[in-house]
Amino acid sequence: MKKLNKLSIVGYGAGDAANNLAFTTATMFLLVYYTDVAGISAAAAGTLLLVVRLFDAFADVFAGRIVDRTFSKRFGKFRPFIMFGSIPLLLLSVAVFSVPQIGESGMLLYAYGTYAALGLAYSLVNIPYGSLAGAMTQDPGERAKLGSARLVGALTVSSALGIFVAPLVKPGADLQSTFTTITLIFVVIGTALYFFTALTAKERVHRAVPNVTLKQSLETLKTNKPLMMLCLSSFFFLTGYLALTSVQLYYLRDVLGRLDLYPVLSIVQLVLTFVLAGFMPKLVRTIGKKSVYVYASLITVVGGAIIFFSPASQVWMGFSGLVVSLVGVLSVNIVVWALEADTVEYGEWKTGVRTEGITYALFSFTRKSGQAVGGSLAAYALALGGYKSGGVAQTADAVYGIQIAAGALPAVMTILAVLVMTKYTLTDAKHAEILKEIQARRTKTAHASSPADANHDATTAGGTTPAAGTSTAGGTSTAAGTSTPADASKPPRQKL
Fold first, then answer.
1. CA–CA distance, 219 with 216 (Å, rounded to integer)
2. Of 36, 78, 285, 483, which has the fewest Cβ atoms less than 10 A away?
3. Residue 144: helix, strand or coil by DSSP?
């Protein structure tokens, strides 16, 4: 398979930039918006985030089935969802940050409804987008490039949010007007980015079964043990990561007393993104994706420990913990998408059917579940510590609750993620063997279905006499004493 051109790689990265105009804006600021702008209590907001994000996880599975069942001869399997789902998704992001003051019950009902709708719309765009990478290339290095491009797109947006938006979240500011204006601007920018992705990132991997049945999807999931291990590890990792992301602003503002460092952290994040994206494909080729995932996760554990044990008076020690955590998180986020794409080939190797949609959907389901648990645990930590909104000074218990959510939770959950990942068996070497076997099957099937080959097998040198003991009934020919299975093209069941 030819190498991906630079435009297609950049185009794919643009898609995750668009995704994060909706997704990262919500993960970074929605808890703050609910507690400090809408006036929803921290405990109620925590329950809301848990319930809706769990709903989002099931929405991913629904979206995965829709994707597997759909195929357009003109646009392929994935790009139609990106093109036609982008505008509704971005408009719902505006609605989420526009909670009307209609009483506590009314506000909660509105918040649940709009956030759930945003989650469903995001699933119908993000599942096809994430699945697209596996259909663009099967080369590990090229997939690492797509993972890097995706990370650059996502982190460019999150860094911009940290640099330009986070400093605006201060006591006395008109935050409702700020969030409304920002999300409306994102509708225009995000639509342009999504269509750029749809026009440049094309599917190139062979697909024997364009429309996948529910039975085929379930069979692929049932036999895909590496996918299950990756999903479980990602659940733990995302639980810790979202706990940190949800309270990062609180940590800088209310623990360290340095909200002005949020833009600095975002700039550091952006620089790290480009540095890691530059050499990560080479590192993947050298030590493999699994090793990168494990070592990077351990770096995240170190960062979480620094955050948790740093006294509030030691500003730069606490800030360094955030930076160390970033190095680990960014590295994991580069390779995890390539690991997920590898499990698609594993499923095809086992069953003969490519099911990018449901495979990515299950992976995203567990990640969304981790995000739901992590975000809600962070909110509950705030509530248990007695966090008070309105710019007031926080008690020692409230500060401790923030440190637990920002440091202890990420460290513990990431250790669990590493323990699971040590049992992951789909190494890069094994994946290369699987690709060779899949290609050999395709070649054999193509030769078997070729009219020229069939004629050659059915005739002798004179072109008229069948081989001894053969039968030409039904247009087939077999050697003496042998028989042709009815389903010879179906791949044998494999074990790993």
1. 5
2. 483
3. helix
Helix (H) and strand (E) counts in the chain = 16, 0
Length of the chain: 496
> What's the rounded Cα separation, in Å, for the pair 101 and 3?
54
| Structural domain for 327, as ranges | 6-436
**If we measure between CA atoms, which residue out of 34, 207, 186 comes closest to residue 115?**
34
Q: CA-to-CA distance for 224 and 163, rounded, in angstroms?
A: 41
Interacting residues of 59 by C-beta distance below 8 A, sequence separation 6+: 119, 120, 123, 124
CB contact at 8 A, 136 and 8:
yes
**Degrees, nearest 5: CA angle 199-164-250:** 115
488 located within any domain: no
> What does the pLDDT look like over 29-88, one tens digit per residue?
888 899 888 888 888 988 898 898 888 888 888 888 888 777 767 777 888 899 999 999
Element of type H or E holding 153: helix 140-160
Closest CA to 165 of 118, 97, 112, 117: 97
Euclidean distance between CA atoms 471 and 350, whole angstroms? 33
Can you list the alpha helix ranges (DSSP code H) found in 201-253?
214-223, 225-250
Torsion angle of C-alpha atoms 457, 463, 469, 472, degrees rounded to 10: 70
Q: What is the pLDDT of residues 7-39, one digit of tens each?
A: 999 999 999 999 999 888 888 888 889 988 888
What residues contact residue 55 under an 8 Å CB cut-off, 6+ apart?
A: 116, 119, 120
Is residue 197 situated within a structural domain? yes
What's the sign of the alpha-carbon dihedral 59, 64, 70, 71? positive
Buried b (16+ CB within 10 A) or exposed e, 105-135: eebbebbeebbbbbbbbbbbbbbbbbbbbbb
Q: Which structure tokens are listed for 219?
A: 């069979």
Q: What is the CATH number of the domain that holds 376?
A: 1.20.1250.20
Q: Which residues of 304-313 are buried (b: 16+ CB within 10 A; e: fewer)?
A: bbbbbebebe
Question: DSSP 3-state assignment of 86?
Answer: helix
CA torsion sign, 416 to 418 to 419 to 421?
Answer: positive
Check if the beta carbon of residue 300 is closer than 8 Å to that of residue 328: yes
**Gap between the Cα atoms of 448 and 445, Å rounded:** 5
Nearest to 270 by CA among 159, 422, 412: 159
**Share of residues in the chain with pLDDT > 70 (%):** 86
Cα 477 to Cα 291, 411, 424, 473: the distances in Å are 50, 64, 45, 8
Q: Count of domains in the chain? A: 1
Q: Is residue 112 part of a domain?
A: yes
Q: Residue 76 pairs with which residues in a beta bridge?
A: 72
